[in-house]
Design brief:
- Helix content is about 30%, strand content about 20%.
- The protein is an alpha+beta fold and about 270 residues long.
- The protein folds into two domains: about 80 residues, Outer Surface Protein A, domain 3 (Alpha-Beta Complex), CATH 3.90.930; about 180 residues, Rossmann fold.
- It has a six-stranded mixed sheet, with helices on both faces.
- Strand 8 and strand 9 form a beta hairpin.
- Helix 4 crosses helix 8.
- The longest helix is centred in the last third of the chain and has 19 residues.
- It is elongated, with a radius of gyration of 25 Å.
- Bound molecules: zinc ion (ZN).
- Zinc ion (ZN) binds next to helix 6.
Length: about 270
């Protein structure tokens, strides 16, 4: 399929002066005006290809449409509106009762990514939401079977996003636990209690701004994952504050006591 030129999304064309137009305003691309150019720009709907545009353009510019479009594409004043190939990924979102609303917001945002079904043997990502620490017995089988997973946990009005674990590629929750145990010998005692009901649980209290900030963070990282870029929550735990602000990011590194890195060995 040949190029389908369009103005960049959400971009306006304005007149800069009697001889120039400007595509976009921040900062915008200056384009020398010429007879027929305004009419051509109005024809750019991202559906017509260059020959169709040339056939519809005014006679003053019709013969130059290929070169004009090529130049404007090169300068960023136009984009190719052909739909990209949809990335393939199946996402399963699991949550407990208090994180249901947060999970629903995350699902809604992930739906906007318009990912294609991966099929039976295609890539799959488990998104696991928990109130407080996730039960290690829920997560360890995912790591052991090579399933990619992203952990989200609430901590009071704050939410932690990460680590996003691609077994053998990015450090796992056991790596995190062992690293934390090195700093705090009582950490295993705390973690062990994630297997059963806590002594007490406060009411669910994630503000809407924080919920949408979590959803945006997850969506951005999943987009990075399917694009082959490193998600920010791979090898890190991001902490979002009560208003959705990004408060800090704590690195998670492979721990010598955990053999998960072997899953990525050739
Ligand atoms: Zn590990």
């Amino acid at each position: 399929m040949s190029v389908r030129p369009s103005l960049p999304p959400a971009t306006t064309v304005v007149r800069r002066d009697v001889h120039h137009l400007q595509v976009g305003t921040d900062p915008g691309v200056l384009v020398r005006d010429r007879p027929g150019l305004v009419g051509l720009l109005r024809l750019l709907d991202g559906v017509r290809d260059v020959p169709q545009l040339a056939a519809l353009a005014g006679p003053e510019i019709a013969g130059d449409v290929p070169s004009v479009v090529t130049e404007l594409l090169a300068r960023g004043a136009l984009v190719d509106a052909r739909p990209p190939v949809r990335a393939r990924l199946d996402i399963a979102v699991h949550c407990d009762a208090p994180t249901q609303r947060l999970a629903e917001t995350v699902r809604t945002a992930l739906h906007e990514l318009d990912l294609a079904p991966a099929g039976r043997s295609g890539p799959r990502l488990y998104v696991h939401l928990s109130t407080g620490e996730p039960a290690r017995s829920d997560i360890q089988p995912l790591a052991a079977t090579g399933q990619a997973h992203l952990l989200i946990s609430t901590a009071g009005p704050r939410v932690r996003v990460g680590p996003l674990v691609v077994p053998g590629v990015s450090p796992c929750l056991t790596c995190l636990d062992l690293g934390q145990r090195d700093e705090d010998p009582t950490w295993p005692v705390v973690v062990a209690q994630s297997e059963g009901p806590p002594i007490a649980t406060g009411p669910a209290g994630i503000a809407p701004t924080a919920r949408w900030a979590v959803a945006a963070t997850v969506t951005r990282d999943v987009r990075a994952l399917v694009s082959g870029r490193r998600p920010r929550s791979a090898g890190a735990v991001l902490r979002l504050g009560p208003d959705g602000d990004h408060e800090d990011s704590r690195p998670v590194t492979f721990h010598h006591g955990c053999g998960c890195w072997l899953l990525g060995a050739p």
